[in-house]
Amino acid sequence: MANCNPRLIPPYGGNLVNLLVSKEEHAQLLERAKNLPSLRLTPRLLCDIELLATGAFSPLDRFIGESDYTRVLEEMRLTNGLLFPLPVALSVKENDISTGDEIALRSPKNEIVAIMKVEEKFERDISREAALICGTTDPRHPVVAEMLSWGRFCLSGPLRVLNTPRHYNFTEFYRTPAEVREWLKSAGYSRAVAFQTRGLIYQTEEETIKKMVKETGGALVLQGVADPTRPGEIDIFTRLRTYKLLAEKYYDRKRTILNFLPLATRLARVREILWYAIIQRNYGCDHLLLADAACINGLDTESERFFAPVEIEEFFTEHSNEIGVKVLLYKRPPRGAMRPEVAAIIANAYPPRHQQGFCLWFTGLPCAGKSTIAEIVTLMLQEYGRKVTFLDGDVVRTHLSKGLGFTKEDRDTNVLRIGFVASEIVRHNGVVVCAAVSPYRAARNQVRNMVGKDRFVEIFVDTPLDVCEKRDTKGLYARARMGKIRGLTGIDDPYEVPVAPEIILKTTDCSPEENARKVILYLIEKKFLPEKPDKQTSKAAAVYHPAITIKN
Ligand SMILES: Nc1ncnc2c1ncn2[C@@H]1O[C@H](COP(=O)(O)OS(=O)(=O)O)[C@@H](OP(=O)(O)O)[C@H]1O
Ligand SMILES: Nc1ncnc2c1ncn2[C@@H]1O[C@H](COP(=O)(O)OP(=O)(O)O)[C@@H](O)[C@H]1O
């Protein structure tokens, strides 16, 4: 229940850390920072410094020093005895920074973030750290894979934070712990429940959350984790849009505050959850609502390979009492339906397959028939109402790749340029048809990765050299045979035949139109096109993303 004289749980360790310099000092320190040696922070470290600066990691007031680092790894405690499960450390590869140096920490975009006085420099044993916090050194674990690229030195020392990263979208939802606490107090709450998520909230889960929050009598702090998207996940902006919609429309506004939390997760199993409990306490929450599945994150979120639920409960009861945050575990209900507006946001971002972008990549010898077939396919696709861009190697070489020749290097540059444009078109759900000799396998595969493996259709126009030579539409083969030109693909330059193209077209026994129809049939079979040009199935149920289930 809201009360008139609320006293929220105090920050962990007693005080909310604030590393931001005062307005008065800002200009002068900024000038000083410009002349200091700089260190560029990774996106992960940028998240960390933001949370350090605003006190979300209180009592930490700096990147961790060596004695704290060691004790945190071994005993989950800081040297002052406080439980703290994960090291927030500043890794560097550079060995030219020494103790006593003053350095400027900059964002990945080179903006000045903070000044740090280096008081400690120590070595970090990444493998041991991975084993202790993630429970594995297996590089299939996404964070372990990333850790292996971290520098082996750590720096620690006092920080004067000049600017936290500016959030240009959803600006008003990136709140500091002090701001959330202020809201809770002014709304009259002495109790607050954090629900921290980086998944989609289905209606069943939304209702479970509401019920559990109501039972505590506290407010809900809906913490949408705003960290970089990992492959295979719903993109961050779509997720944040759904949280905003839900908070505004389906949660009691008097009881709920939405916050976007720039937390770079570690996937460190139960240590991670205790860390969340500390963070949430700093935001003023004395309860943390947690789906049981969240406790077993790691290599395989679906399995219970790390901790059985019973162990989790015991573990939390023991440690969360010490942190002062009650962890409310609940069994995640079956997914069921999404709120229609949420489904609409998702459907817009992840349209059904037949509205998604794809790239048709025609490859083959000069005169194989790439352009002829590609042009017909382009016309056929337009009957399906698709917006199609045709990038023909010949034409691209008159503008985008003007000036490039036919050395291996120039050909690769050409192919990658076409690939880059193609990937941008596909990303925005357009269709792109490319026809380039693209003789090198590695470059073609690079394009496949740029576009996305499931959106890339490699079409090998498999015409024998003697047939191409007879066609010789531009007289190139004749000139090559006469020795007038060098490096013609198929004559004295290599063509690496595709190993596993999605489609192979023979042009000696099929007309260009027949081959074009084969491509269209392939696209229908893969659901990139509806069976008939005018048949649209735009129901939300057709949404295509492995992480989504929608029931209507
Ligand atoms: N040495 C050499 N090798 C291959 N092709 C040559 C060469 N010189 C000129 N041409 C003409 O340029 C067209 C190939 O350009 P691409 O951009 O498709 O080539 S590549 O993918 O960069 O290898 C190619 O067009 P297509 O016949 O449409 O394939 C040729 O007409
Ligand atoms: N079955 C076929 N498929 C494609 N092109 C064919 C076929 N039979 C003959 N041709 C002719 O071969 C030539 C191929 O030229 P083009 O499409 O520019 O090839 P590429 O783009 O591979 O260099 C065209 O003149 C086309 O009319």
UniProtKB/TrEMBL annotation:
Main enzyme class: transferase
Residues reported to bind ATP: 364-371
Active site: residue positions: 438
Domain Sulphate adenylyltransferase catalytic span(s) in chain numbering: 172-329
Reaction(s) the record says it catalyses: adenosine 5'-phosphosulfate + ATP = 3'-phosphoadenylyl sulfate + ADP + H(+)
Domain APS kinase: 356-505
Keyword field: ATP-binding, Kinase, Nucleotide-binding, Nucleotidyltransferase, Phosphoprotein, Transferase
Listed pathway(s): Sulfur metabolism; hydrogen sulfide biosynthesis; sulfite from sulfate: step 2/3
One of the GO BP terms on file: hydrogen sulfide biosynthetic process
Keyword Iron-sulfur carried by entry: no
Enzyme Commission code: 2.7.1.25
All residue ranges annotated as the ATP-sulfurylase PUA-like domain in the record: 9-163
Record Pfam families: APS_kinase (PF01583), ATP-sulfurylase (PF01747), PUA_2 (PF14306)
Family the UniProt entry places it in: Belongs to the APS kinase family.
Annotated function: Catalyzes the synthesis of activated sulfate.
Protein name: Adenylyl-sulfate kinase
Organism this protein belongs to: Thermodesulfitimonas autotrophica
